[in-house]
Automatic annotation (TrEMBL):
Residues 1-15 have a biased composition (Low complexity). Residues 103-298 form the ABC transmembrane type-1 domain. It comes from Streptomyces griseoaurantiacus. Gene3D superfamilies: MetI-like. It is a multi-pass membrane protein. Residues 1-35 are annotated as: Disordered. The chain crosses the membrane at residues 40-61, 107-128, 140-160, 172-193, 214-239, 275-298. This is Carbohydrate ABC transporter membrane protein 2, CUT1 family.
């Protein structure tokens, strides 16, 4: 909504008491705090929503179809036979229930890899934010440079190093590289700098608290939003990790969900291989459910973590 602002001279002109006064001039004043609408931005956001929602809708719809129904029906609408529960049952029982093993492997990689990466990022980010030491600028430059390097560029050198150490085809080949998260370290560094007042730490030290007690009882509660944010980022990265397990693992018993579902999908390209696209789609739907649940349950924390430091007081 908008209001009109008029001047006394303009009012007099309207009433006829001031001849020759300036003509009425209305000035539109927007109410403070109300955002202006942009048709272009609205259209762009609508396209982004479609780009995000349509693939998810396709996944949900096709997870309800049988293998034959996938080819006989429209990809964005349901088939005559509703086979979602049968597909879920078959996904967990196919090949002696190997999908459950892949799910447990993925949970192992997330708990050990993403959890360890978050812990290291919290400790390193707090130390870099609140302590001064020689070479701090060099560490900052190293972290920024590591953020710019894609993980796929390090996959082959990591494989060669792990091969000489005898760690390939073991869970350690996936867990150890997942412990390194330069972006998580940088995010915790920035968050700790803004979220923890230096005066609060000095007060705790003056009261006789040790550095460990100061960190765990004073700093750590203030870092909770940043910790959740980093944990979600590292969890998604580890959960969706495909290329690293692809070059590190040969034993299907150690596959994560991403690699296992890819193996099922590749069966159609082999001679005599069984086509199970309906199970691949259903397994993909089951794979993203935990991530969606984690984001919905923890959105209060990670949203505040992303907004930290955005306003300078």
């Amino acid at each position: 909504m908008s209001t009109s602002v008029t001047t006394p001279a303009a009012t007099a002109a309207d009433s006829g008491h001031a001849k020759g006064a300036p003509r009425l001039r209305r000035v539109k004043a927007h109410r403070p705090g109300k955002p202006r609408r942009s048709k272009l931005m609205t259209a762009l956001m609508a396209l982004m929503v479609l780009y995000t929602v349509v693939p998810l809708l396709w996944l949900v719809v096709n997870a309800t179809k049988t293998q034959q129904g996938l080819g006989d029906s429209n990809g964005l609408w349901f088939a005559d036979d509703f086979a979602l529960w049968d597909n879920i049952r078959d996904t967990f029982t196919y090949h002696d229930g190997v999908f459950t093993r892949w799910l447990l492997n993925t949970l192992l990689y997330v708990v050990a890899g993403a959890g360890g990466a978050t812990l290291l990022a919290v400790l390193g980010g707090y130390a870099l934010a609140k302590f001064d030491f020689p070479g701090k600028r060099g560490v900052f430059a190293t972290v920024i440079g590591a953020v710019a390097v894609p993980g796929t560029a390090l996959a082959v050198p990591t494989f060669l190093m792990f091969s000489k150490m005898g760690l390939t085809d073991t869970p350690w080949a996936v867990i150890i590289p997942s412990l390194v998260s330069p972006f998580g370290l940088y995010l915790m560094w920035v968050f700790a700098t803004e979220a923890i007042p230096a005066e609060l730490l000095e007060a705790a030290r003056m009261d006789g608290a040790s550095e460990f007690r100061t960190f765990f009882q004073v700093a750590l509660p203030l870092l909770a939003p940043g910790i959740v944010t980093v944990l979600l980022f590292t969890t998604v990265a580890t959960w969706n990790n495909y290329f690293l397990p692809l070059i590190m693992l040969k034993d299907p018993d150690w596959y994560p969900l991403t690699l296992g579902l890819s193996a099922w999908n590749s069966q159609a390209e082999t001679v005599g291989g069984e086509v199970v696209f309906n199970l691949v789609i259903t397994g993909s739907l089951l794979t993203i459910v935990p991530l969606i649940a984690a984001f919905l349950l923890l959105q209060k924390y990670w949203q505040s973590g992303l907004a930290a430091g955005s306003v300078k007081e």
